[in-house]
Amino acid sequence: MMTAVRERAAYANLLLPSELRKARLDTRDAALATELTYGTLRTQGLLDRIIAEAAGRPVEEIDPPVLDLVRLGAYQLLFTRIGAHAAVDTSVEAARTQGLGRAGAFVNAVLRKVSAQDLDGWVAVLRKDVTDPVARLAVGTAHPEWIARAFAESLGADAAELPELLAADDARPKVHLAALPGAISAEELALVTGGTEGVVSPYAVHLDSGDPGTLEAVRDRLATVQDEGSQVVAIAASRAPLVGEDGGRWLDLCAGPGGKAVMLGALAEIEGATVTGVEVSEHRADLVREATRDLPVTVLTADGRDPGLEPGFDRVLLDAPCSGLGALRRRPEARWRKTAADIPGLVVLQRELLESALRLVRPGGVVLYATCSPHLSETVSMIREANRRDDVELLDVREILEGIDGAATEGLGDGPWVQLWPHRHGTDAMFMAGLRRVASDPTPPTRED
Ligand SMILES: C[S@@+](CC[C@H](N)C(=O)[O-])C[C@H]1O[C@@H](n2cnc3c(N)ncnc32)[C@H](O)[C@@H]1O
């Protein structure tokens, strides 16, 4: 499993359920396998630094399949109550059964060194010469330093919340369901699933555990699995105030795999509107088609920067491709795969998509820009830059949420944009901003020759 995630750059949350089914583990063993896999991937960067100290060499010099075993063993030693003997012995045995027998002695020696101290002891070793408070927190919570720093910058005046935020990132998230508007209410969905109603979206229900795919309400397409923050983004896009009548032409410019398109489609159906979904990847466009097949949604496979659509949309949701730093708790391996160097390229794409969204929306219509990242370059800076245009006015997203019965109104910051946070709202760290297009001055500037 770890090897598959490493070699195929697969996502653990997509791969693990089928691997567990194949292995036919009972519920307890499956829960343990899940905890060990996710935990080892989530803490990998920290484990690697500890392993490097214990092995006396950089982890890049360790054979990758052997390193996978050492990481798994080190995770058990430092993060679980599994006894040291059991953790070391099963790791050595795994080396033998995987045909890495000659590495058994190495695995044994490194893990014995790792087991000589507990987690706090190792964190103290790694922090020995580190004085910067954010860097110290990053080590202690197994976050890359650049990510902890980006979070601190985004929290700004609330940077004292950083320890809570990083801890929330490390906790296993609840399953969030969305009751589809017009199909079932959150109250009914909570009753039939045994869940509890959410607090950020009026359609949300939380489940503590379980496989949501097996729920009747999900199979019958009355509900979907969707983070509460994402639900609010789609609702806000449908409710932002326009100038003039809503003509019912809505656009979802980056629609794949279709979570928000489903919510937007269900809301559009109630309002008598239709949604055009645009997605550049053929495969993801197909996923949107399948997810929205009963809803008034038409899907186009195209580049959102120039999709060839007639302008004049009343509402445009731009859920931009982003670093995903706001959803690290749902993707255990993600924090170690991303780098600060990924951000500038994403920002260019986001800017071009936002320009396209503003070309496609009619004067008086609204673009709801969203990212599942709190990185300031992808969020506030992007919106400040767009706001320099004279045909854009910013809407206060807090007011939009206040107008939605049952939506969150607490901890939304100073506006006009809203940043949701896992530690405050229990959601992914979704950012949203509302940009309304105003008719730009039709008179061309006079030139004095
Ligand atoms: C953040 S995801 C959107 C998630 C989606 N709104 C949902 O709720 O399921 C961004 C999507 O944008 C797509 N994308 C990337 N570049 C694009 C482009 N130039 N035009 C349209 N879609 C693009 C990606 O393939 C990805 O599916």
Automatic annotation (TrEMBL):
Q: Which residues form a coiled coil?
A: none
Active-site residues?
A: 372 (nucleophile)
**CDD domains, per the entry:** AdoMet_MTases
| Pfam (any one) | Methyltr_RsmB-F
Reply yes or no: does the keyword Flavoprotein apply.
no
Q: Would you say which domain of life the source belongs to? A: Bacteria
| Record Gene3D superfamilies | NusB-like, Vaccinia Virus protein VP39
| PANTHER family, per the entry | NOP2 YEAST -RELATED NOL1/NOP2/FMU SUN DOMAIN-CONTAINING, RIBOSOMAL RNA SMALL SUBUNIT METHYLTRANSFERASE B-RELATED
What's the protein name?
16S rRNA m5C967 methyltransferase
Lineage runs: Bacteria, Bacillati, Actinomycetota, Actinomycetes, Mycobacteriales
